[in-house]
Each structure stands twice: as structure tokens, then as C-alpha cells.
Amino acid sequence: MPAMDLTWIRWLLDSYASWLKRDLIERTGTLDEQCEKLFSAPFVVVSHANAEDPVLNYGNRQALVLWEMTWAELTAIPSRLTAEPANRTERARMLHQAEEHGFITDYEGVRISKSGRRFLVKQATVWNVLDEHGTKRGQAATFSRWVPLPAKQP
User: Fold this and answer.
1) What is the pLDDT of residue 84?
2) Smallest Cα–Cα separation from 146: which of 103, 102, 114, 113?
3) How far apart are CA 120 and CA 112, in angstroms?
4) What's the chain's Rg over C-alpha atoms?
5) What's the pLDDT score for residue 83?
6) Geometric angle at alpha carbon 36, from 108 and 68, rounded to 5°
7) Which residues pair with 58 in a beta bridge?
């Protein structure tokens, strides 16, 4: 497992529980153990911190597999590049809606992997990541359902 920012993981997990009124993972053990549970979870979790053009700062093992990237690659990519150009306006609208309301559930959208493989994310939850003072630090998303899509025709 790559080195993780434990403060970010705590904020991510605490924020999810605060917004959704349930835990994303079982919150037993140390924060290091919770970090391992999150990284090994059978569902996707990705996040980015606040920035004008935010770069992904977390992706668990399932996210790395789905996007066909290493940790170093995933955490160096602007999050907007996880969607094709034609789908970025919809992605931005969804992130704005989550920012306004704290979280959204049941989001669907097309994403693209490093190799160009397209997939439809289904029933995603997107939430604002807050620090212990309630300051918005970024956003995160989780989903366990996706459908492979055919390659785009030239």
C-alpha cells in the first residue's frame, strides 16, 4: 500500500459519515488499519483537494485497477481528465451540485481509463471533504457499480 496522508483519510471518512449518516468502512482499529481497509475495499474511492484544477490525491486499489494506473500516475492526474472531454461539463455540474448540497447520491457518468477504456459509473456518491473545523478541503467519490462501454467509433 502506498504512503497515505492519514489526516486526509480521517477527513474523508469523517465527512462521509457526517453527510451520509453511516460509515464508508468499518471504523474499528487504528487510523492506519482503517486506511488499509479503505485501500483494500471492493469498491472505488477517489478524491481531490481544493484547487483551481484539482489533482487526484487518493485512489484506493479498486480505483487504480479501474483507471489502469499506478498510485504515482493517479495522484498526478487532474481529476477532470478521468472523464472524456465531451463529458467534462456534466462532471463539473455534478461536482458543483455536490459542493452546494454537501453530497449527492445516485450519480451516473462516463469515465475513461489510462488506456482509453470507457466505463459508465453507476450509483456513485460524491461528497465534500471537510476538516475538523468544517472547512471544505476537497471532494471524494465512491461507487461499486460500473459498466464497460464500447470504444468510441472514429
Assistant:
1) 78
2) 113
3) 9
4) 15
5) 81
6) 45
7) 47
Residue 153 placed within a domain: no
Give the residue among 83, 14, 79, 12 at the shortest CA–CA distance from 48.
Answer: 79
Residue 25: domain span: 6-148
Q: How many domains would you assign to the chain?
A: 1
The Cα–Cα gap between 94 and 136 comes to: 17
Grouping H, G, I as helix, E, B as strand and the rest as coil, residue 104 is strand
State the Cα–Cα distance between residues 102 and 96, nearest whole angstrom: 10
Instruction: Give per-residue pLDDT as tens, 18-40.
Output: 999 999 999 999 999 999 999 99
The pTM assigned to this predicted structure is 0.92
CATH code (residue 121): 3.30.450.20
Angstrom distance (rounded) from CA 55 to CA 28 = 29
| 46 domain-assigned | yes
Q: Does residue 39 belong to any structural domain of this protein?
A: yes
101, part of any domain: yes
CA atoms within 13 A on the CB side of 122: 7
